């Protein structure tokens, strides 16, 4: 059988004495989009941060194409192609849209960066129109586009999206959803955290639900297309 792109087995993460992830397992196949669901505080961001190397695991393994990567520092995980868009976005507010995007490709050659930039503008025409504008003057939705665009500039092996719709107006949730769907159509492999089930189910193939640091449920989006209520119960009740 083909090796999964990402394989997480029995990971445990604690902040000090407080154990947050208590043995989490899941896999992500090439070209697949998996959505991580769960109530606030259930450990979704912690699980993503363990994959991208922003937090360490005290137990368990994380494999990228068979190679163990748990506890690598974040810059090394990034270099291997695990590129995360965090909830805080971490943009450079004083710099222009284009300079923020270019920073996503800083480890690549100039020629490649120019090609990537045009590719990213293909997904985000709204950013192309605003290429010289300072990021601090953009709306929240546009800033989220810059954050995703910057990650796409790095040509990630796995794109990690932590609540891409967080705090956005319905119009932007739709626009971002359309863009994520286009990335998927072009073959992107993605792990996404999302509270907006409409968006999650528009783009994901499969979902898992975290509760108190363990995976309690999961399934194929197609199987639950008409039964979001069941999932909402499983997450919150
Ligand atoms: N750096 C940290 N130090 C201590 N506790 C943290 C830290 N980050 C998150 N937590 C706690 O870990 C739990 C899980 O957080 P998180 O993974 O961010 O949840 P989610 O993304 O599902 O909302 C929460 O109780 C949160 O308060
Ligand atoms: Mg979170």
Notable traits:
237 residues; alpha/beta; four-stranded antiparallel β-sheet; 9 helices; 10 strands; 25% strand; globular; binds adenosine-5'-diphosphate; binds magnesium ion
Q: What's the overall average pLDDT, rounded?
A: 94
> Measured on Cα atoms, how large is the radius of gyration?
17 Å
Helix content: 25-40%
Largest sheet: 6 strands, mixed
User: Which ligands accompany this protein?
Assistant: adenosine-5'-diphosphate, magnesium ion
Q: Identify the strand order in the major beta sheet.
A: 6-7-8-3-9-10
Structural class, from helix and strand content? alpha/beta
Q: What order do the SSEs take from the amino end to the carboxyl end, as H and E?
A: EEEHEEHEHHHHEHEHEEH
Per DSSP, the total helix count is 9
What is the strand and helix layout of this fold?
Layout: E1 6-15, E2 18-28, E3 33-37, H1 44-52, E4 59-64, E5 67-68, H2 74-79, E6 82-85, H3 97-103, H4 110-123, H5 125-129, H6 140-153, E7 158-162, H7 170-185, E8 190-193, H8 197-203, E9 206-211, E10 214-220, H9 228-236
Parallel strand pairs: 3-8, 3-9, 6-7, 7-8
Antiparallel strand pairs: 1-2, 1-4, 4-5, 9-10
Helix pairs in contact: 3-6, 4-6, 7-8
This protein binds adenosine-5'-diphosphate (ADP) and magnesium ion.
Textual characterization of the structure:
This protein is of the alpha/beta class. It has a domain at 91-154. 37% of the residues lie in helices and 25% in strands. It has nine helices and ten strands. It has helices at residues 44-52, 74-79, 97-103, 110-123, 125-129, 140-153, 170-185, 197-203, 228-236, and strands at 6-15, 18-28, 33-37, 59-64, 67-68, 82-85, 158-162, 190-193, 206-211, 214-220. The strands form two sheets. A six-stranded mixed β-sheet has the order 6-7-8-3-9-10, with helices on both faces. Helix 3 (97-103) runs parallel beside helix 6 (140-153), helix 4 packs across helix 6 (140-153) and helix 7 runs parallel beside helix 8 (197-203). The mean pLDDT is 94. The chain binds adenosine-5'-diphosphate and magnesium ion (MG). Adenosine-5'-diphosphate (ADP) binds next to helix 1.
């Amino acid at each position: 059988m083909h090796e999964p792109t990402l394989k997480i087995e029995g990971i445990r993460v604690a902040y000090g004495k407080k154990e947050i992830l208590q043995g989490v397992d899941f896999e992500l196949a090439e070209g697949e989009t998996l959505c991580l669901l769960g109530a606030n505080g259930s450990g979704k961001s912690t699980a993503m941060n363990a994959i991208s190397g922003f937090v360490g695991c005290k137990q368990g393994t994380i494999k990228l194409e068979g190679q163990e990567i748990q506890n690598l520092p974040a810059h090394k995980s990034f270099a291997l192609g695990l590129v995360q868009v965090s909830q805080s976005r971490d943009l450079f507010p004083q710099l222009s849209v284009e300079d923020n995007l270019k920073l996503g490709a800083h480890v690549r050659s100039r020629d490649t960066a120019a090609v990537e930039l045009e590719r990213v503008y293909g997904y985000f025409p709204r950013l192309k129109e605003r290429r010289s504008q300072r990021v601090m003057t953009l709306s929240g939705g546009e800033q989220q586009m810059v954050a995703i665009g910057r990650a796409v500039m790095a040509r990630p092996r796995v794109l990690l999206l932590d609540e891409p719709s967080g705090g956005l107006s319905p119009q932007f949730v739709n626009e971002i959803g359309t863009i994520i769907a286009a990335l998927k159509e072009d073959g992107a492999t993605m792990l996404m955290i999302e509270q907006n089930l409409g968006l999650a189910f528009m783009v994901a193939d499969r979902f898992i639900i975290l509760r108190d640091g363990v995976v309690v449920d999961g399934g194929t989006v197609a199987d639950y297309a008409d039964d979001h209520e069941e999932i909402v119960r499983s997450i919150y009740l």
